[in-house]
Design brief:
Rossmann fold, 13 strands, 7-stranded parallel beta sheet, 43% helix, alpha/beta, globular, 3-stranded parallel beta sheet
Length: 390
């Protein structure tokens, strides 16, 4: 069977999950990946070595037409709620009867829930629907419309229980390959010397794109509050000091942040091996209801104690193998970081349990079973429809 995977933008670091889907689908099927790029854009460097099928077009409409024409699979998997993925998949389903699976990596229609009342939410939706953004395939106007059409997908992959309750579908947390993320393969001190990371400090690590909702400022505030009681530093891999928000965090930290800049996904195990703790506190906002940071699984696989917030599936993921604090509770976060720093043996045991949790529940092998079962079920339904039509 041939599966076509549609990716809305190859230029974004959001293609990490699409890359995983392509890898796992390729275990059982011929896989065709089609991803959109505008002229002058390039594939995000972390995943540039994968043979993506690039659809280059100056506008969304031209891109959608070109992508639909190139679909040659028996089943379409659309990654995320975008016109360049789910929108194209719906057109292929309507025009050619191709079975369609929608992958939902997070809750993508949360923007209007920031408004205080139903009236304000309705006003925002109306304003967005008639306002600008017609050539932005991932604008709120299109995401909101596509959200109303998710039931027309033959099946849905959902990354967390909130989305499972809201949309139904197959529960598919974003896992990883534990053989690639294995702390036994790395020498912590040698890696620290390689990257210029202090060998005598306790290292907290953040990998990804620093943004206000990622808990970085809260982590820095906790480190500043500890002052000289513990020598701890925060290493950020994803942006360097030229990035405005990263620069702001460096200034806030009073010398406690080391920004390594963008790094290939293949180096994440090495960089995590240099760390002692990963803090991923989340802010309480609508997006957090349907979002689990994928960096959590990476840290767990590397036997690192993880500190995060009581939101979405995080308490279930870290139960008995990590630390959970209330969101936006800086004193609790500070106290938990200090506790982990002062109880290293407990922290190491948490890390060992965390890796075992990933192997049992969040590995690529676990994802593979869910994906393949869903693909076979959808293919069976489509075959049944074809036979009845004949």
């Amino acid at each position: 069977m041939k599966v076509t995977l549609l990716v809305p933008s190859l230029a974004s670091n959001g293609i990490a999950r699409a890359w995983i889907l392509a890898k796992l689908l390729g275990r059982h099927h011929e896989v065709e990946t089609l991803g959109f790029l505008r002229p002058g854009e390039e594939v995000f460097p972390w995943f540039a070595d994968y043979p993506w099928g690039q659809v280059v077009a100056p506008t969304m409409r031209e891109g959608m037409r070109a992508m639909e024409k190139r679909i040659s699979g028996d089943i379409v998997v659309a990654y995320s709620l975008s016109m360049m993925s789910f929108g194209v998949g719906l057109r292929a389903k309507m025009h050619r009867g191709l079975p369609l699976v929608l992958d939902m990596p997070e809750w993508e229609v949360h923007d209007h829930w920031k408004r205080p009342t139903r009236f304000h939410r309705a006003a925002m939706i109306l304003r967005e629907l008639v306002g600008p953004g017609w050539d932005n395939a991932h604008s709120f106007k299109y995401r909101w419309v596509l959200d109303q059409l998710t039931r027309f997908a033959d099946e849905r992959f959902v990354c967390c229980h909130f989305l499972e309750q809201r949309y139904g579908g197959a529960y598919l947390p974003q896992g990883l390959d534990p053989t690639a993320f294995d702390p036994a393969q790395h020498d912590k001190m040698a890696i620290r010397r390689k990257w210029g990371i202090p060998e005598d400090a306790t290292i907290l690590f953040f990998g990804g794109n620093p943004q206000p909702n990622k808990g970085i400022a809260e982590t820095i505030n906790a480190l500043n509050a500890l002052e000289d009681r513990v020598k701890a530093r925060l290493v950020i891999a994803g942006r360097d000091a030229s990035h405005a928000y990263t620069r702001q965090m460096i200034d806030l930290s009073r010398g406690k942040v080391l920004a390594l800049g963008p790094q290939p996904f293949t180096l994440m195990p090495e960089l995590l091996a240099a760390a002692d703790i990963v803090a991923l506190p989340q802010t309480r906002e609508p997006k957090s209801l349907g979002y689990v940071p994928c960096k959590m699984y990476e840290a767990m696989a590397m036997e690192l104690p993880v500190i995060s917030s009581r939101l979405c599936d995080i308490p279930e993921i870290l139960e008995g193998c990590g630390y959970v604090v209330e969101p936006e509770d800086d004193p609790a976060l500070q106290a938990t970081i200090e506790h982990v720093l002062l109880h290293p043996e407990e922290a190491r045991e948490m890390g060992r349990r965390a890796r075992q949790r990933v192997i049992e529940r969040y590995s690529w092998d676990v994802m593979d079973r869910t994906i393949e079962q869903t693909i076979q079920t959808v293919a069976g339904r489509a075959g049944g429809r074809s036979r009845r039509a004949a």
